[in-house]
Amino acid sequence: MTPTDYIWMNGRFVKWDDATIHVCSHVVHYGSSVFEGMRVYKTNNGPAAFRLKEHTKRLFDSARIYRMDIPFTPDQINQAILDTVGINGLDECYVRPIAFRGFHRLGVDPTGCPIDVAVAAWPWGKYLSEEEMQRKGVCVSSWHRIAPNTMPAMAKAGANYMNSQLIKLEAIAHGYVEGIALDVFGHVSEGSGENLFLVRKKALITPDFSASILPGITRSSVIQMAEDMGLKVIEQNVPREALYLAEEVFFTGSAVEIEPITKIDGIVIGDGRPGPITTKLRTEFFDIVRGKARDRYGWLTPVPAYKEVTV
Ligand code: PMP
User: Which segments of 93-247 are extended strands (E)?
Assistant: First the structure.
């Protein structure tokens, strides 16, 4: 992780090293955070944030589910994100806005704990190595995704990533790059930090929201592009074995972007190479986010040069 100069914390910039919290903060003990992960891409017209408003909206949606009142407006958070990229002089980066229950007193009841908000940004290249994805592939995890009515999967909450860590660490321990979790009913859900798509007979198939998935913003972007390309998109329950029979499988996510999966549990998918539909969607995606194709969906927000230093 490459540190940058400043982190936005509760309305002002602090130096990267000073962006600290108390060990008795509620979040440290009870996992009470909601967060986002998004990318800013380099374009010929300067840096551009990908789907800024949608990410901020999901942050507020996650907070609503957990009865957390973020003490800023969505517009203020949008501005904080753009300022954090600007003040650090980044032309391409990953951005992590987070809201969490801070320090007041311990005990499960968070009443009285402040909702602290921070935005960090740093350069982050590829999330999964393409070479490793080809050589090692991914596995279906023995850990299931969180069950409905236990932890809400539609909230991007820090605590959900305890489940993700089990999936990821097991996959690595067994020699794979990433794990795909089934939901508690045995249907395919998602990766530890990615949504999943299958291609079969020119249709794109992806688990629906009832399969304990995070409503991915890259997922919705891929669905939009695919429909415009004339592909049929089906959101439905996916049985595990459909993974092995698919012509193509790929992950989507802000970190992973669009990543082909060519081997699952040691079984080669299709002909073992990134398939034509995955490649077409991926090319289109990168052309749009890097400003090489017209931003026809209005996905990009230019990052203005940051002027005022308030530190
Ligand atoms: N599922 C999980 C569990 C994730 O952590 C992510 C990454 N945010 C995704 C799916 C993909 O969502 P998005 O495309 O919005 O990044």
Answer: 93-101, 115-122, 138-140, 178-182, 188-191, 195-200, 203-206, 232-235
Per residue in 121-150, pLDDT tens?
A: 999 999 999 999 999 999 999 999 999 999
Pairing verdict, β 6-9 and 38-43: unpaired
Name the residue with tokens 């590829």. Answer: 126
Tell me the two tokens of residue 114.
């402040």
In this structure, are residues 184 and 147 in contact, taking their beta carbons and an 8 Å threshold?
Answer: yes
**168 classed as catalytic:** no
Helix (H) or strand (E) holding 302: strand 300-302
Cα of 194 from ligand 1 centre, angstroms? 5
Residue 244 burial (CB count, 10 A) = 13
The per-residue DSSP string of 252-296 comes to EETTTEEEEE-EETTEEPTTSS--HHHHHHHHHHHHHHTTSS--T
Are the C-beta atoms of residues 119 and 7 closer than 8 Å to each other? yes
CA 200 vs CA 61, 239, 242, 245: distances in Å: 33, 13, 9, 8
Q: Is the CB of 190 under 6 A from ligand 1?
A: yes
Tell me the per-residue pLDDT of 266-295, one tens digit each, with 9 for 90 and over.
999 999 999 999 999 999 999 999 999 999
Of all protein residues, the one whose alpha carbon is nearest to atom 9 of ligand 1 is: 194
Among candidate residues 57, 136, 156, 280, the one labeled active-site is 156
